[in-house]
Amino acid sequence: MAAIWKGSISFGLVNIPIALYSATRGREEIKFQLLRKDDLSPVKYQRVAEADGKDVPWDHIVKGYEYEKGQFVVIEDKDFDRVKLKSAQTIDIRAFVDLNEIDPMFFDQPYFLAPEKGGDKAYALLRDSLKNSGKVGIAKVVIRKREHLAAVKPRGDALVLELMHFADELADPTDLPVPKSSDLGKKEVSMAETLIDGMTEKWDPAQYHDQYREALAKLIEEKVAAGGKALPGSKEPPVKPTKVIDLVAVLQQSLNQAQAAKKSARSAQAATPKRRKAA
Q1: Can you tell me the distance from the alpha carbon of 87 to that of 168, in angstroms, rounded to the nearest whole number?
Q2: What is 5-24+84-168's CATH topology?
Q3: Which of 14, 50, 87, 99 makes the best surface tag, with the fewest CB within 10 Å?
């Protein structure tokens, strides 16, 4: 795994040389290309000027900011270099806070941190101190010419840098037309809580996968095998939206289904023969 950024973590007078590694894999998106319908010739993307409709070569393109309608100022590479930030090569921890005080909505993108030469002991000290205290370090860091708010968190034997949203990047939900708790009856709340309790299980991320992508890949294979011809329509009837008239009845039906599913799972588990351990 190649490092994508190198710098240091600093808190107080402690400085830890580290390297930053991606902690996620990009989703394998199924990509499509625009084609001309008549002969399936690929359609190319062109850079065209709005003023006269002429093609513009890359060496004639600059970056600009529209400060008023139709009025632009050009920003060159040397202008970006003039924006000096203290946190350019440092994960600068400004404070430590309890993890449970942070709304999960603030977290965005995780990265792994690994110590560089000479940083092992200080790295382990920070990791274990965060584990024991239940706190995370709140830092500023610049990655790809943009400053981010971030949290330094322990995860097993590693430290994770999780980029965060700034407060002004989160939308305010107070204007949403949501119902009040007072609109619900005690019976509905109690049944819903029982349903949630009955459907509660241990978190296993491996059981969740992108079924839409898998189905789309299968459809593409079938269409290639059919020489690009139209495939027969789906035999499954469309799902019709239902109107919830009696919430209690719907909750009771859901409870019955959840209990039946758990009973079926236990029966299947009991019927599975257990392997004997080798002597």
Answers
A1: 20
A2: Ku70; Chain: A; Domain 2 (2.40.290)
A3: 50
